[in-house]
Amino acid sequence: MGFTLTYEGKLRWTKQPEQIYDKMCTYIAKHKAASRWSATLLHDTVMLDFGNGHSEPFVMEFHDGYVFGSYTPDVPVNLERLEIQKGDFRNLLSLLMTFQKSFQVWHIKDPYGLYQAYSVYKQLRIKVRDLTDAEYRRVFRIHRNGYKTPDAFLLAVITEDLGLSDCSELELHLNPNIDRELFRCPIRLYPILATWLYETASCRGFRVSELNPEVHPAHVISDVDADVKSFIFGIEHFFSVTSEKFGTIPGYLNEAVNQIRMLYEYIYLPALHAQYDTAMQMLVVYRHFVSIYEYLGFTFVGSKTPVIV
Questions:
Q1: CB-based burial of residue 123 (10 Å sphere; 0-12 exposed, 13-18 middle, 19+ buried)?
Q2: What is the 3-state secondary structure (H, E, C) of the chain?
Q3: Per-residue pLDDT tens over the stretch 224-247
Q4: How many CA atoms lie within 13 A of 280 on its CB side?
């Protein structure tokens, strides 16, 4: 599916089109994947030819330091994932990111937000992994049972993992050993999620439910507690909820949560909205959910109701 990328910018007063041309030449020299490329500077026009015999050149024509233009890349768009395959277009986006410091204003747009997503992707440490065959089957099974929105679907997953028969039982199954702050939070989802992690997951080599301050080092318990809270606060938007009291709860404003929020806003939402079929949407939801789970170091070890202490 074709699309057009548009760009506009204004060079910093110390910069000239020659500096953009130099950046192109430097990129070509440093990247083996761009070895076929060639850059040309003619007056105030910079042109990049991909040398593959079919892609149109990328042209930047400057007028008094301003540049406006558009480019139609010769690449397919994967609407399920909005992922950019390795190749000339992906390398072009990487090149365009190097221009940022040369411009006072530098805007790039496309119908799918691919440039924005790619720039975020370069900063992300979260790997959105593929689902296994068993996970695919699980998604379609739960979807067939009528859970067709992100929040309903994920609550159904949690209900199943905890060995409960219905989502209505979740609030009756809250584990009293979890952090009391989560019980005091006005959003009842938080202790539900904490109970799920507490009773089914391990983290940093320990089953969460078996951590004991009388046995385990304080720093281990503190780190796992922060991971639990980062997961809860990072995925809240999957459930269409937000808390107004984040500042009062430790573990919210940390790098892990920032990473999850970037993933959610720039990768997850565009991929979700690109799907019109709810089954495919739930695949997107589950992919991102389990990827965040694994990024924070959680491993599913199965339901085991802990001894109440």
A1: exposed
A2: CCCCEEEEEEECCCCCHHHHHHHHHHHHHHCHHHCCCEEEEECCEEEEECCCCCCCCEEEEEECCEEEEEECCCCCCCCCCCCCCCCHHHHHHHHHHHCHHHEEEEEEECCCCHHHHHHHHHHCCCCCCCCCHHHHHHHHHHHHCCCCCHHHHHHHHHHHHCCCCCHHHHHHHCCCCCCHHHHHCCCCHHHHHHHHHHHHEEECCEEHHHCCCCCCCHHHHHHHHHHHHHHHHHCHHHHCCCCCCHHHCCCCCCHHHHHHHHHHHHHHHHHHHCCCCHHHHHHHHHHHHHHHHHHCCEEECCCCCCCCC
A3: 888 998 999 888 889 876 554 443
A4: 11
- Round the CA-based radius of gyration of the chain to a whole number and report it: 24
Contacts with 267 (C-beta within 8 Å, 6 or more apart), sequence order = 82, 117, 120, 121, 124, 128, 288
**How many CB atoms neighbour CB 183 within 10 A?**
13
Locus of tokens 């990768």: 267
- Flag whether the pTM goes above 0.85: no
Contact 267, 120 (CB under 8 A): yes
226-262 burial code (b ≥16 CB/10 A, e <16)? bbbbbbbbbbbbbbeeebeeeeebebbeeebbebbeb
**pLDDT tens readout for residues 4-59:** 899 999 999 999 999 999 999 999 999 998 999 999 999 999 999 999 888 899 99
Residue 251: pLDDT band with limits 50, 70, 90: very low
CB atoms within 10 A of CB 66: 13
Q: pLDDT band at 307, cuts 50/70/90?
A: very low
